[in-house]
Write a structure and sequence with these properties.
By secondary structure, the protein is α/β, with parallel strands linked by helices. It is built from 14 helices and 12 strands. Helix 1 packs parallel to helix 8, helix 4 packs parallel to helix 6 and helix 10 crosses helix 14.
Length: about 300
């Protein structure tokens, strides 16, 4: 089991601060939760708490980016996607500024605070904005790599961070820096492409399917924009069936991005999409809440079998 994604991100941010004096970090009075406080303790002169003012958080970061700094803004994903969106679109993205947007508590991971605090639309919203890249790490190591990758970019990058510790995914660093999907399991009967924390569920689903005599090929897909559709479609062409999984609304999200690429490429196969189907979440324990909305190894395996007519 990996450490918490937010913890790994906060620690790595402080480590990179030693060799990247241009990094400045801004938080909206939630640094104890987002773990950006780790950077603040190490570099108090490069850490700014703007208070509960997420619009100012993004606007100040954009201004700092024009002065040669590499700002990282860190707050709850739900507030960044909604309260900061004006400044993110107009100040950061319109001017194509290199700001890293770290959205903590993504998806259902702020589970007990209910729908008002669960960021399930963030992938769709940020993916739609020109110049923005969108990364949804599957584990703590991918979160660290996402930060390193974002520091090499000259445009805005959104990184969705989960609150909890998730199983580790074996990720090749070179492939990650080429924005490639990570093949976790080799298979021949069905392709499962999962983004974010659902990748570990997909790997567990492959084990359940193996017990039923079904060979699943599993991908962890941290990059939603740009999306590595080539790897997914090559696999799906081989297997003839594709299951996509995301801890987010299906409208305009990860499966939507693949569908757009398939339409452009003229690619078709049997498909099942697993995610939130035009609905909000609710209050409850995280893992049971995920399972209620179909985000479990058991449901992924079941849907794959249905797709194959089993």
């Amino acid at each position: 089991m990996s450490m918490q994604m937010r913890e790994a991100f906060g620690r790595h941010l402080a480590e990179l601060g030693k060799t990247h004096p241009e990094i400045v970090v801004l938080d909206a009075d939630v640094s104890a939760s987002t773990k950006s406080a780790i950077f603040g303790k190490a570099f108090p002169d490069r850490f700014f708490n703007v208070g509960v003012a997420e619009g100012n958080l993004a606007g100040i970061a954009a201004g700092l980016a024009t002065a040669g700094y590499r700002p990282v803004i860190n707050s709850f994903a739900i507030f960044l996607e909604l309260k900061s969106i004006d400044q993110i679109r107009h100040d950061m993205c319109y001017n194509n500024l290199p700001v890293i947007i770290a959205g903590a508590y993504g998806g259902f991971s702020d589970s007990f605070d209910g729908a008002s605090h669960q960021a399930v639309e963030d992938i769709s919203i940020f993916r739609a904005i020109p110049n923005m890249e969108v990364i949804v790490p599957s584990d703590a190591h991918q979160a660290e790599l996402a930060l390193e990758y974002a520091l090499t970019r000259n445009n805005p990058v959104y990184i969705r961070l989960n609150r909890n510790a998730m199983p580790d995914i074996d990720t090749d660093t070179d492939a990650f820096f080429k924005a490639k999907a990570v093949k976790c399991v080799e298979g021949k009967d069905v392709t499962i492409a999962a983004t974010g924390i659902t990748a570990s569920m997909a790997c567990d689903a492959a084990k359940l399917l193996e017990a039923e005599g079904i060979s699943a090929e599993v991908f962890s897909c941290p990059f939603v924009k740009p999306i590595d559709s080539t790897s997914i479609f090559e696999s799906a062409k081989k297997t003839g069936a594709l299951v996509t999984v995301e801890e987010a609304v299906l409208n305009g999200g990860f499966s939507g991005a693949l569908a757009e690429e398939a339409f452009r490429a003229g690619f078709a196969c049997k498909v099942k999409t697993i995610g939130l189907d035009n609905c909000f979440g609710e209050t409850g324990p995280y893992v049971p809440l995920l399972a209620k909305y179909g985000l479990s190894a058991e449901n992924i395996a079941s849907e794959a079998m249905k797709l194959l007519g089993k």
